[in-house]
Design goal:
globular; GMP Synthetase, Chain A, domain 3; 8-stranded mixed sheet; single chain; 18% strand; alpha/beta
Length: 367
């Protein structure tokens, strides 16, 4: 009987859809790391080995596993063990990993005004809330917004050696932005080479400390910063942010094509401002159209990481320097951002691992 139950449970884990990862592709529980193991009492247990953080989401994972257990014929509750190990994943070309950072995730829009920076900071905070060590780099040199969003406007980074910066701490994140170095009221009238030099300094001369993820808040467009990122920065994956209307979706597609040309994998698409939530009655209205992000993701065979509301609360919390996930991670808005972060991290965990730093140098000598 025990053998039959174990086989039924293994079959279910190979068939049932894992709650995170987006559509498509649909991850199964087995593909996400669930396996049947022997329990201490001689029965069976489920061990879930995840490649992404899920401290806060643990109960959201245990409940469906119990349902799968019951559906497979089990009685009572099955023991569930959840373990996480965040690993370094492959990057484009022959680029070497960045010291102190396991994975760099670029959040891009290819178009301004779609809420990319709000998505970036809340994704970073959501990963932090799940137990990861996370940093955020504000790569928008002309219009840095992360210092205001994280409530550190006016703070400047410290340099202990006169050559490198220590990241600024904000809501548990390590962050760096040109907005913390120059006067926030100063217009950045810089040409391309100066902008790319500034990005290189912010990224490579910051002492990032043992990060699982570094979220890069990209500027809009497909210009100098994007090219520098593709050529010099080891990126594990990208997230594209759009709104539902056609003009934004067209730019999102161009962003996807740009990342494809430079061999950076796109983890998925986020449809921001999907619906407007009335602050008075709570009614939802699709101000910018409906289903555009869903259709675009399906058309291009990529995951839809989430649909986020246009909500007054999100704007208010971000403006006062305490973004939604930091203010109330269990709110409907906070959980929506958390789902985006978990979907992206789950898909990244399925990507090939990076082994460039796993082997020592080989020296050939002729005797």
């Amino acid at each position: 009987m025990a053998g039959t139950l174990q086989k039924a449970l293994e079959k279910a884990l190979n068939e049932r859809q894992f709650p995170f990862g987006g559509q498509p592709p649909a991850l199964t529980w087995a593909a996400a790391g669930a396996q049947v193991v022997a329990a201490a009492d001689g029965g069976v247990a489920i061990r879930l080995e995840l490649g992404f953080p899920a401290d806060a989401a643990a109960e959201r994972l245990r409940e469906p596993l119990q349902e799968i257990w019951q559906a497979a014929g089990g009685s009572g509750a099955v023991p569930v063990e959840i373990a996480t190990a965040i690993r370094r994943h492959a990057v484009q070309g022959t680029l070497a990993p960045l010291g102190g950072v396991k994975n760099i995730i670029a959040v891009s829009s290819a178009k301004g005004g779609v809420g990319k920076s709000t998505v970036a900071v809340n994704v970073a905070l959501a990963l932090r809330h799940e137990g990861a060590r996370v940093g955020i780099l504000d790569a928008d040199i002309y219009g840095p917004s992360q210092p205001i969003m994280l409530g550190v406007a006016g703070q400047q980074p410290v340099s202990k050696d006169g050559k490198t910066f220590e990241p600024i701490e904000a809501h548990g994140l390590q962050m760096m932005s040109i907005g913390c170095i120059v006067d926030t009221g100063q217009a950045m009238v810089w040409r391309g080479p100066m902008v790319t030099q500034a990005l290189n300094q912010l990224l490579f001369q910051t002492n990032w400390r043992d990060l699982d993820y570094l979220i890069v808040d990209m500027p809009p467009g497909t210009g100098d910063i994007q090219l520098t990122l593709a050529q010099k920065v080891p990126v594990s994956g990208a997230i594209i942010v759009t709104t539902p209307q056609d003009i934004a979706l067209a730019d999102a597609v161009r962003g996807m094509q740009m990342f494809a040309k430079v061999s950076i994998p796109v983890l998925g698409l986020v449809e921001n401002m999907s619906t407007f939530v009335c602050p008075g009655c709570g009614e939802s209205t699709a101000l910018f159209g409906q289903g555009g992000g869903v259709a675009t993701a399906a058309e291009h065979g990529m995951a839809l990481l989430g649909q986020l509301p246009l909500d007054l609360r999100i704007r208010e919390e971000t403006d006062r320097g305490c973004p939604t996930v930091a203010a109330d991670p269990q709110s409907p808005q906070g959980l929506a951002f958390s789902d985006v972060a978990l979907n992206a991290a789950a898909l990244l965990a399925q990507r090939p691992r990076d082994y460039k730093g796993a082997f020592g140098g080989i020296k050939v000598e002729q005797n």
